[in-house]
């Protein structure tokens, strides 16, 4: 059986004169790009460039909406009513769709950014408000969720297309939550180890926890980063290890409904 | 022969806690609404409400992009490169399309706001950059232009759908430019007079200048305002006068190519 | 013995083309103005006008910093680190001081706005971070606090000048907290009643609760509003009632240290 | 006779998560820092850090106000009324003064940023509006002007303290304007040449043009940059060359009135 998985990373996080990230390098590694939409990062010019490069490289394009908080990069908690969150996602997704279309591309997926994502991973009603905003604009969009969190509960309840995401560089507890960053081993810094872990999780169709427990999960895409040499090394190592294991790297197709244990 | 014309006004110009305009009253008068897109006015919540109301009233929906200048309401000159203007329009149109779609509506037209419009009415290359941005997103969109200005030159050159606009409350010079506001009679304050003039221009398919000269023009839509009692009175008077003259008020269909003198 | 009290209200809450509030009317009633500093409302032009009017009317001028959240008017919870809150207050106070000085005035006091104030009234460490930022810029500034809240704990701990504030239009519980808005009688809508209550509390030097209990408090200033006819009527009624009772209305002098029972 | 000159550079141009510039390196070279004030770059946190570092290194601190245009970094032409420019400078200077004071420093000078500076160097009335805004806040502030431009005309007319600035890396025409960037030799890339030129101009108290002409000028400070290795190399070379020539590098004292030829 052919196994496939997607590799995703955040992109287009520059703003005006300020450059962030290593988009060109990442585009050689990932199969899906989450593009900032101008609220926590990105602007109309940055988005145009990012979409052009993503189209040119054949990368799957996603909208990456965040809180309206440029100075805080969308990483600060903000409390918005659900109706406003829904509108916020509609707006940013619409902008992303236009920027992609104008460069010959299509927004296939949506992933929440920063604190908006963090809050939604613990609050299914909030996640649902955000995702409903996206579905109001495009009923076929694939919602990327943090596997085994309230984000997944939300897409299962909505019955929409979705894809489950795991982290290449974070250790998991036995309840599928992330090991707290304050604990030793919580963050993986060794590219080789990261590669090995991802091969194992993709093969198992499961999150493999620190204790070795396997939690069947929607392992559709792996979250990579491009900030700094270590992150890029991990990204490249994960790609190489998966390819060496015979895994095909390509944009996720999306799934509907509850996770069933894979193969 | 049945004559028709469209009545348009700017809407959705509130922002956050600040209310502007009399959208509810205007929606009873106009057939097309130009909706602010969040850069000079409007925000994700204001846009959602405005789109909902426009859809409910059957009003034709337009995107009304402006300069990225909230404090100046897009009324201050800013110099952006043409590529950035194109991206700016793409972004705002995309946001408007999503906000409209989520409420069951469709963005039919695009009209530039404020100083962006003023500059484009005197600079066909700049107008073209803006309009190209819109066409990159939606090749079928109807571009609303100030009749007989460089805006019109731009749409004729682009070969896209467009509609010509005249002012209900401004006097015209014999070269189709507006009489300077410093001149007596430049701005029409008399609702009855405004109504009479519009009936005459729509019947003639021409701009009728102060001297009485008739300049054949694309009289597809009439620009109305809702700021203050006088503006609303003019809007209502124009509507009543046109209806009394047997003119059908409905959203413009759009035209392609050069203006030919209407029958 | 001559009793005095200050009447304060928020002002300068317009932004760009959007007008908010009835500053001119309020300036005839209040003795202190809390001027928005450009983050949740106000801008450089609005501030210049507001400072000019406050100076002309002899009103005590205060800086009214808020969260960096224009669209939400600073009414949404945001989580900023204490160091950033301190910097945020420094910045806004500095801007206010310059705008006042340029019009011949002086910023005498500081009052937190909206959700920043709400959060600080329940979190003394957060309040202290904000107030420390103000004192870093002006060690003599008078910090206006919600009487008998964590805001007051913070100024007492800091040993700075402060003034205690009570509400003209809110009922109090026996622990000096506000009666929840969902309860009947929580908000006072009757101008005559508001006036009578303020006369009683100023005379008593105490918060008088719904049950009639008197909690000795720093009744240095009374918070009024100007949004809507009822609010202005309450403001005027409170002023008239206090004057009729022989109370002198003037800007607070500020106090240092713990509250002792008055009179 | 002891000759002295100041070396200045722009700093604090990071924003939120985005880093710009090499402030730490520049602070080892310059004697004056122009600190962005949050409108075109910088924010409350960046300013606090920049002020702290400038105070620690004994660098003269200046406010560096710009247009309200973060995405365009204040480099785009914007047309604001003179009254609004005055208010804009007041506001930003006030914020800078507070941020400096809170870290134990003082804002000594003011320099306009980007397109605001460019426009003011060709429009004395506009320059005067900006500088008046600064003087309204601090009558003793030293206004840094581009020598022999309309900026200088403005400070001479105002009778305020000022300091004249020349460029380390730009060639001059015989009318004291800069050689257009499109011309060969317009921009100096050779650190050694830049150093030699600055030694010559400081010794002469004059701008030395491409043709060798000497235009007596207020050579009070030299503008350096820190963006990229070449810029830093030029900055260091200029510093070393001046010191080798016996010139004392220290913050300018400011001057009043017209330039007289230096001895």
From TrEMBL, chains A, B, C, D:
<dbReference type="Pfam" id="PF03746">
    <property type="entry name" value="LamB_YcsF"/>
</dbReference>
<dbReference type="InterPro" id="IPR005501">
    <property type="entry name" value="LamB/YcsF/PxpA-like"/>
</dbReference>
<protein>
    <submittedName>
        <fullName>UPF0271 protein</fullName>
    </submittedName>
</protein>
<dbReference type="GO" id="GO:0005975">
    <property type="term" value="P:carbohydrate metabolic process"/>
</dbReference>
<dbReference type="InterPro" id="IPR011330">
    <property type="entry name" value="Glyco_hydro/deAcase_b/a-brl"/>
</dbReference>
